[in-house]
Design goal:
The protein is an alpha/beta fold. It has a single domain, classed as P-loop containing nucleotide triphosphate hydrolases (Rossmann fold, 3-Layer(aba) Sandwich). It is 37% helix and 27% strand. It contains 9 helices and 9 strands. β8 and β9 form a beta hairpin. The protein is globular. It starts with a strand and ends with a helix.
Length: 247
């Protein structure tokens, strides 16, 4: 299995400015010497409590941070991201059809007819009727909005999709539907994914391998079944016990 992404010795620092004018800003070391890879067709779970550095790693991988230390090697084009709250990630002033076609207008030379055909195909692929192309985000349910967000991320046919807590804002029934959808899309489109979550149960359902972070560092990694059945780090054991996860 070839890699679509390789991250080596990633470090991310943030300046923290004091409230007082007389104090110098300090530097916060948010991500500390993080290394991992993602293989073709693999779903890698990035797990840890809030503030552990998961989302910072994702932003670094997508080039959203101005400067990082370390090496990030992409072996595929156009990596895309799906965010936790689609209500804020989708432009409320644009219809679903406009949202889906926007990356095609900006980054391809497809005709308007081809853009429309691709939007129709993709909206159906994520389990929605093409009538929703004329709807606006505020007219959709949370699950429908997340399906649109996934569709928008896939319009340029990326090989790597980063999903940052994509189901945590949804109820349990809708969570299961979105998880099933993402697994189906992985198989159909030969996608690789980084699935970011704090929920061990969701990660267990979704992922092939898992990376567990604490305070900006990787404390454990391996195949999901191996880590959950035989965790080696005390923090991992604590997470599994807290979730009352039986595997």
């Amino acid at each position: 299995m070839e890699d679509v992404l390789k991250v080596s010795h990633l470090n991310v620092y943030y300046k923290q400015y004091a409230k007082s004018l007389f104090k110098k800003p300090t530097v916060f070391h948010a991500v500390k010497d993080v290394s991992f890879s993602v293989g073709e067709g693999e779903i890698l779970g990035l797990l840890g409590e809030s503030g552990c550095g998961k989302s910072t790693v994702a932003k670094a991988v997508l080039g959203m941070l101005p400067q990082v230390d370390g090496t990030i090697e992409h072996f595929s084009k156009n990596p895309q991201m799906v965010f936790q709250d689609p209500f804020h990630s989708l432009n409320p002033a644009r219809s679903v059809g406009q949202i889906l076609k926007e990356p095609l207008r900006n980054l391809t030379d497809l005709s308007k007819e081809a853009q429309e055909e691709k939007a129709v195909s993709m909206i159906k692929r994520v389990g929605l009727d093409e009538k929703y192309l004329s709807h606006y985000p505020k007219e959709l349910s949370g699950g429908q909005r997340q399906r649109v967000a996934i569709a928008a991320a896939l319009m340029l046919e990326p090989k790597l999709l980063i999903a940052d807590e994509p189901v945590s804002a949804l109820d349990v029934t809708i969570q299961a539907q979105i998880i099933d959808l993402m697994l189906k899309l992985r198989d159909e489109m030969k996608l690789s994914m980084i699935f970011i979550s704090h929920d061990l149960r969701v990660v267990y359902q979704m992922c092939d391998r898992i990376v567990i972070m604490k305070e900006g560092m990787i404390v454990e990694e391996g195949r999901v079944e191996d880590v959950y059945v035989n965790p080696s780090h005390p923090y991992t054991k604590t997470l599994i016990e807290a979730a009352n996860l039986k595997v």
